[in-house]
Amino acid sequence: MQVTSEVKKNIFKTYGGSEKNTGSTAGQIALYTERINHISGHLTTNRKDYANTRSLLKLVGKRRRLLNYMMKEDLMGYRSLIEKLNIRK
After folding, report:
1. CATH number at residue 60
2. Rounded CA separation 12/50 (Å)
3. Cα separation of 48 and 17, whole Å?
């Protein structure tokens, strides 16, 4: 199941400032985290789903690059975001 538009609006409203601000770094990281959590849950029951395993690794890499960018630009925002999203690092 994909992330619905209502969930996306809620994520961007919470982390991006407004639901129209879909380009904010924090909002994109939160959206990737939601997708990663969904795919991880799927892979716990379907271990041999290699296509979703590959897509999970790609999403983790994209989120990592965005987190590195945010760490360089806004360190306090980065720290608060990883605390809110419960991302280990």
Report:
1. 1.10.287.10
2. 30
3. 38
Q: How confident is the model at residue 16 (pLDDT cuts 50, 70, 90)?
A: confident
Q: Which residues, at least 6 apart from 37, have a Cβ–Cβ distance to it below 8 Å?
A: none
Write out the DSSP string of 50-69: HHHHHHHHHHHHHHHHHHHH
pLDDT at 89 over 60: no
Higher pLDDT, 41 or 3: 41
| pLDDT confidence of residue 17 | 86
Segments forming the whole domain that contains residue 42: 5-85
